[in-house]
Design brief:
Length: 242
Amino acid sequence: MASSEEDGTVEEKENNNKKRTKSTLATAWLTFYNIAMTAGWLVLAMAMTRFYIQKGTHKGLYRSIARTLKFFQTFALVEVGHCAIGIVRTSVIVTGVQVCSRIFMVWFITNSIRQIQSEESVILFLVVWTVTEITRYSYYTFKLLNHLPYFIKWARYNLFIVLYPVGVVGELLTIYAALPFVRRSGMYSMRLPNKYNVSFDYYYCLIIVMLSYIPLFPQLYFHMLRQRRRMLHGEVIVEKDD
Ligand SMILES: CCCCCCCCCCCCC[C@@H](O)CC(=O)SCCNC(=O)CCNC(=O)[C@H](O)C(C)(C)COP(=O)(O)OP(=O)(O)OC[C@H]1O[C@@H](n2cnc3c(N)ncnc32)[C@H](O)[C@@H]1OP(=O)(O)O
């Protein structure tokens, strides 16, 4: 009897040690990840500012930062993994929609259609994303290090009120500007007849993507408003599981 009690205690201790090691590893990884992402978006901010000061125009700006942008925005896919394995307390769906829509904007719109890369709307969403991500990743970093300055917390949970809709306007205007080029070139589309017997029209797909902002964006925005109330005003909010 005594020995089984002891066994239980040993098992509990082992489990606790495992959990502690896991959470130390997760914290170390998240700290590294957030520092790297803050640095990446700071590099982008500096590159954009330098380009504009040197050239005096936004034309060619996208090309000059494309590689860095594609790397850091695509790398953000690991955030969906963080939620899925439970090392951050965030919804997989909310994070998935946010990250995938950004990756879609970068790879399948801006990067694929050269003619729209100098649109003002591209600069608009790039500036908004950059400010957002520098704030967001530095917030997570300082929080993990237990030294969170209030102004960063304030910025994280207030700037989005304006930046989110402005970013969405930039993204929608960019997709809209892409439509004529997509229609003319027939890119990423499959017309019948073909050996797979499948038809796909990227032009209409883009229209559906634009329309999907109507139901999806308010959900992300209200999610952030709830987070704001929780983080800045200490309200307890019960969210539904995914
Ligand atoms: C394939 C085709 C797709 C087409 C789809 C078309 C649909 C389009 C609709 C979508 C529109 C999106 C437009 C968008 O791209 C425009 C912009 O982004 S404009 C710029 C302004 N944007 C923002 O401000 C974005 C704000 N949104 C978010 O931040 C996100 O919702 C999200 C990234 C998911 C974060 O939300 P979350 O719920 O995680 O909030 P918190 O930051 O409060 O975090 C909650 C807790 O988790 C901890 N956490 C999260 N991540 C980390 C991390 N990396 N490291 C450490 N800890 C982390 C955080 O600390 C909180 O912990 P605790 O609760 O313990 O305090």
